[in-house]
Structures are given as C-alpha cells and as structure tokens.
C-alpha cells in the first residue's frame, strides 16, 4: 500500500531524514542503488525498512524522491 502525502509533508519528511537516521539523502540514494534490483516501489520501501530498520514514512519518502529525481533526469 502506497501512502500519498502532500508535497509539504514529503518535503518535511525529507528534511528530517538526515537528523533522524544519521545519513544524508544522497547516502540513502546510494544504498538503494547498491541494494537489490527491485522494480516495484513497495518492494524498495520494504527492503529499506527490513535492511535498515527505517520507519515506513521515511522509506516511502526516500524511494519517492529517488523516483522523482530519476524522472527529472529522464526528461531533463
């Protein structure tokens, strides 16, 4: 189940991730890229939660932001 947040909530979650996890967003992006090749959004969220003990909201925000950045590069 994907949780849809407002843009403001998404940005607030992203801003809290470094302090809450001790890792920058770029570090999280590299960890996901280096992890298993999982095609579905929810699979990547579940992997982050299981492998790195992240709360669902943070894992969702990380994967969603990665997808946004990839789409921007594809159309950029």
Helix-and-strand structural type: mainly alpha
The biggest beta sheet reads: none
C-alpha end-to-end distance: 29 Å
Order of helices and strands: HHHH
Oligomer: single chain
The total count of strands amounts to: 0
Whole-angstrom Rg: 12 Å
Low-confidence stretches: none
The global form is globular
Helix content bin: over 70%
Instruction: Give the averaged pLDDT, no decimals.
Output: 92
Secondary structure tally, helices:
4
What share of the residues does DSSP label as strand, in percent?
A: under 5%
In short:
The chain is an all-alpha fold. It is built from four helices and no strands. It has helices at residues 7-21, 25-34, 41-52, 56-75.
Descriptive account of the structure:
This protein is mostly helical and 76 residues long. It has helices at residues 7-21, 25-34, 41-52, 56-75. The protein contains four helices and no strands. The protein is globular and about 30 Å long.
């Amino acid at each position: 189940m994907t949780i849809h947040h407002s843009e403001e909530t998404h940005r607030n979650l992203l801003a809290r991730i470094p302090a809450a996890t001790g890792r920058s967003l770029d570090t999280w992006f590299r960890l996901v890229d280096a992890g298993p090749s999982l095609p579905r959004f929810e699979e990547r969220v579940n992997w982050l939660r299981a492998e790195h003990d992240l709360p669902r909201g943070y894992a969702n925000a990380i994967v969603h932001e990665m997808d946004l950045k990839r789409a921007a590069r594809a159309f950029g």
